[in-house]
């Protein structure tokens, strides 16, 4: 259950971070002046948000696994 919790948390946090970063990057580097707001929304929602969600999912899975290894080290158990 803990693995599922960290996975979902990583997905949500990663999507939010990716969408925010995408919005900032597009607003800084895009030369589009006609539909810049639409470009920011579409890029954030469909490109950088999902990429961030995937990275957040992987981070959530590895953070959860890392905590088990730390508990074993504290208890003196072999891997």
How would you explain this protein's 3D organization?
This protein is mainly alpha-helical and 79 residues long. Helix content is 86%, strand content 0%. The chain is built from two helices and no strands. The two termini are 22 Å apart. 20% of the residues are buried. The mean pLDDT is 87.
| Major sheet size, sense and barrel closure | none
Share in helix:
over 70%
How many separate helices? 2
Spatial gap, N to C terminus = 22 Å
Tell me, what's the shape? elongated
Mean pLDDT: 87
- Low-pLDDT stretches are none
Query: How many DSSP E strands?
Result: 0
Beta strand % = under 5%
Give the SSE string. HH
Compute the CA-based radius of gyration.
18 Å
Structural class: mainly alpha
Key phrases:
79 residues, mainly alpha, 86% helix, single chain, elongated
């Amino acid at each position: 259950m803990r693995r599922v919790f960290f996975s979902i948390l990583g997905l949500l946090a990663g999507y939010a971070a990716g969408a925010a970063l995408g919005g900032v990057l597009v607003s800084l580097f895009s030369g589009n002046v006609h539909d810049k707001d639409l470009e920011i929304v579409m890029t954030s929602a469909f490109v950088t948000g999902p990429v961030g969600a995937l990275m957040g999912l992987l981070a959530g899975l590895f953070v959860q696994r890392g905590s088990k290894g730390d508990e074993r080290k504290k208890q003196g158990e072999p891997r």
